[in-house]
């Protein structure tokens, strides 16, 4: 399974795009929103938590449709399904690889983009913490969606429609953490709920995604 | 490791294609599958590899013993030949990359990105993966497509060596590989195209 992780990371680096695309999309959102909304610092500070989280979510969504589709098209997925590693493990490893390639750069870039959006000073630490806890759920839920749509040609739209509703709890609680932190309030409740969603997604969805893949491989 | 198939009925996209199929492949034996296009050769091989369930009947085999090679080779074009083989060696927990490289004459290509290979060279890389997997039963779907005559010889040689070591192979091919192998024509087992036999129910399963 470590071999699979290394292979996926290597493919992401070699193919270009993988690392850069989500991150540059995130950057674009964070740069364009202040230009569109206007320079009023109070308004920007109010919308910053929401924008930073919506941006992270959409950036995650961008590269999801390739998660299994590439392996499906070139036959690797058939071979992985007959290999001695469990398909649940394959799904989990591919979600982890997606998180390392997409989620981690977003987490690291978020504080920088917070400056552009005039995020409240107390918000920065919790912005990083909430994204670090929330983005693994985005990758895992996305992997489930990608497994459901793997046989569909140009399934990107369908994938987005399927995955976005499942992303909502993560978005709501994640943005709530940052909002409360920026306003100087306690963050324990939304943070616990956010972590709970991530834990549940990581525990349950590999099995659901593997079942979906088995059906799609028939 | 014997492969035994008893009274098997299989379906493609919910429509039964083969029924009443029974055969066995003992260690050291190969079985060549023949039949017209669409008879269900690929479906049979995918079913035996465990990628889809049969409609009815039994396949007695250790599912960790079958190595499947389909139409697509599962090659990552941005990785080199050596990296592709090394990955599968790690997945299957073997260290037979060197055997596979020499068996399919890939030594000159090891550090070349797979994207630069010709169709025949890709096919050889895909078949070399079988040697890397170290599995006893090979389920091969049209393995000689886009191979030249020298490469077909190389492949026949690899199969013969595999059989000599007690492995077995199930090959859907129209090319004569010069093997001492039994041939199974699938035409008599074509599923009756009657609505009565699960044609509709099969689609819902």
Tags for this model:
heterodimer; A: 218 residues; mainly alpha; elongated; B: 205 residues; alpha/beta; five-stranded parallel β-sheet; three-stranded antiparallel β-sheet; 6 helices; 24% strand; disordered C terminus
- The termini of chain A sit apart by 23 Å
Give the SSE string of chain A: HHHHHHHHH
Shape of chain B: globular
Number of helices of chain A: 9
- Structural class call of chain A reads mainly alpha
State the helical fraction of chain A.
over 70%
Largest sheet of chain A: none
Structure description:
The complex is a heterodimer of chains A (218) and B (205). Chain A has 218 residues and is mainly alpha-helical. Chain A has 9 helices and no strands. Chain A has helices spanning 2-14, 18-37, 41-62, 66-73, 76-82, 87-116, 123-148, 156-182, 188-217. The radius of gyration of chain A is 18 Å and the shape is elongated. The relative contact order of chain A is 0.15. Chain B is of the alpha/beta class and 205 residues long. Helices cover 31% and strands 24% of the residues of chain B. Chain B has helices at 41-48, 81-92, 97-103, 119-133, 149-164, 199-204; strands spanning 3-12, 15-25, 30-34, 56-60, 66-69, 137-141, 168-172, 182-185. In chain B, strands 5-6-7-3-8 form a 5-stranded parallel sheet, sandwiched between helices. In chain B, strands 2-1-4 form a 3-stranded antiparallel sheet. In chain B, helix 5 links the parallel strand 6 (137-141) and strand 7. Chain B is globular and about 50 Å long. Chains A and B meet through helix 1 and helix 5 of A and strand 5 and helix 2 of B.
């Amino acid at each position: 399974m470590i071999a699979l992780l290394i292979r996926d990371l290597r493919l992401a680096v070699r193919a270009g795009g993988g690392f850069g695309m989500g991150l540059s999309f995130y950057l674009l959102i964070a740069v364009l929103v202040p230009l569109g909304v206007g320079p009023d610092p109070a308004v920007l500070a109010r919308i910053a938590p929401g924008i930073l989280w919506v941006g992270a979510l959409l950036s995650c969504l961008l590269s999801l449709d390739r998660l299994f589709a590439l392996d499906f098209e070139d036959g690797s997925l058939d071979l992985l399904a007959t290999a001695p590693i469990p398909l649940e493990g394959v799904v989990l490893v591919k979600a982890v690889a997606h998180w390392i390639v997409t989620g981690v750069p977003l987490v690291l870039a978020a504080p920088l983009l917070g400056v552009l959006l005039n995020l409240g000073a107390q918000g920065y630490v919790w912005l990083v913490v909430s994204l670090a806890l929330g983005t693994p759920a985005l990758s895992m839920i996305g992997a489930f969606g990608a497994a459901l749509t793997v046989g569909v040609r140009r399934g990107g739209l369908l994938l987005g429609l399927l995955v976005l509703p499942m992303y909502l709890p993560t978005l709501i609680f994640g943005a709530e953490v940052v909002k409360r932190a920026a306003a100087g309030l306690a963050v324990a409740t939304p943070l616990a709920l956010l972590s709970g969603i991530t834990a549940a997604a990581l525990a349950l969805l590999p099995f659901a995604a593997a079942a979906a893949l088995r059906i799609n491989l028939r | 490791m014997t492969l035994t198939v008893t009274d098997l009925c299989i379906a493609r996209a919910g429509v039964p294609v083969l029924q009443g199929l029974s055969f066995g492949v003992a260690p050291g034996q190969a079985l060549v599958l023949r039949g017209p296009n669409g008879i269900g050769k690929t479906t049979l091989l995918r079913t035996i590899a465990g990628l889809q369930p049969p409609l009815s009947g039994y396949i007695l085999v250790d599912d960790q013993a079958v190595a499947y090679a389909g139409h697509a080779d599962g090659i990552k074009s941005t990785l080199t030949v050596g990296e592709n083989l090394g990955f599968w060696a790690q997945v299957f927990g073997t260290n037979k990359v060197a055997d596979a490289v020499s068996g399919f004459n890939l030594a000159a290509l090891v550090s070349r990105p797979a994207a630069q290979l010709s169709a025949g060279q890709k096919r050889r890389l895909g078949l070399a993966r079988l040697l890397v997997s170290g599995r006893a039963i090979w389920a091969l779907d049209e393995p000689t497509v886009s191979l030249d005559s020298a490469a077909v010889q190389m492949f026949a040689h690899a199969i013969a060596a595999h059989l000599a070591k007690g492995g077995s192979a199930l090959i859907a091919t129209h090319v004569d590989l010069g093997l001492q192998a039994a041939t199974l024509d699938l035409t008599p087992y074509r599923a009756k195209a009657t609505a009565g036999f699960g044609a509709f129910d099969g689609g819902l399963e």
